Amino acid sequence: MTTQARQRPVADGLFTWPSERPRLKAAECADCGMISFPADTHCVRCGGSDCREKLLADRGTLWTFTTQDFRPPSPPYDGSDTAQTFEPYTVGYVELPGGLRVEARLTEPDVNRLTIGQPMRMTLVPYSVDPDGTEVLTFAFGPEPEHEHGQHETREA
User: Exposed/middle/buried for 69, CB within 10 Å: 0-12, 13-18, 19+?
Assistant: First the structure.
């Protein structure tokens, strides 16, 4: 990665930035206790407006995953790749302590190295590059180092 002066988050308020140990920012409703990500000013459960920032754990377990084999439609996708330069990637849901599931890119592209229930850790990864050369970062989850070589499993319904 380049220096922080030449990097920026994909969206303000999505994760702590700059940070040596980035964390996702959620909202916790003071009225009903609902935790939602991404954070919002109103509760998605009760409509309450007393929502406070809550930093989420940077570790969880892989709940499910799949591959993104084609460039997503634009808009809303705004990556700097093209249909010709697009590289498939894995996406999944990571369950954090307390049961909240977060949809995210995964850093491991090989589905044969991923396992349902595998310990995962949040990191920041390049998403695109602005016209001025600034690297745009987003969050992703990757296997914990001691759990990088899982076997592909499917979740039973």
Answer: exposed
CA-to-CA distance for 45 and 140, rounded, in angstroms? Answer: 26
How long a stretch of residues is the chain? 157
Pairing of strands 89-95, 119-129: unpaired
Q: Is 0.90 topped by the overall pTM?
A: no
> Which tens digits make up the pLDDT trace of 55-72?
999 999 999 999 999 988
Q: Does residue 119 contact residue 144 with C-beta atoms inside 8 Å?
A: yes
DSSP 15: B
| Count of other CB atoms within 10 angstroms of residue 60 | 24
Amino acid identity at 153: E
State the Cα–Cα distance between residues 14 and 151, nearest whole angstrom.
31
The structure tokens 């600034």 sit at: 134
Asked if pLDDT for residue 154 goes beyond 90, the answer is: no
Domain boundary assignment for the chain? 58-143
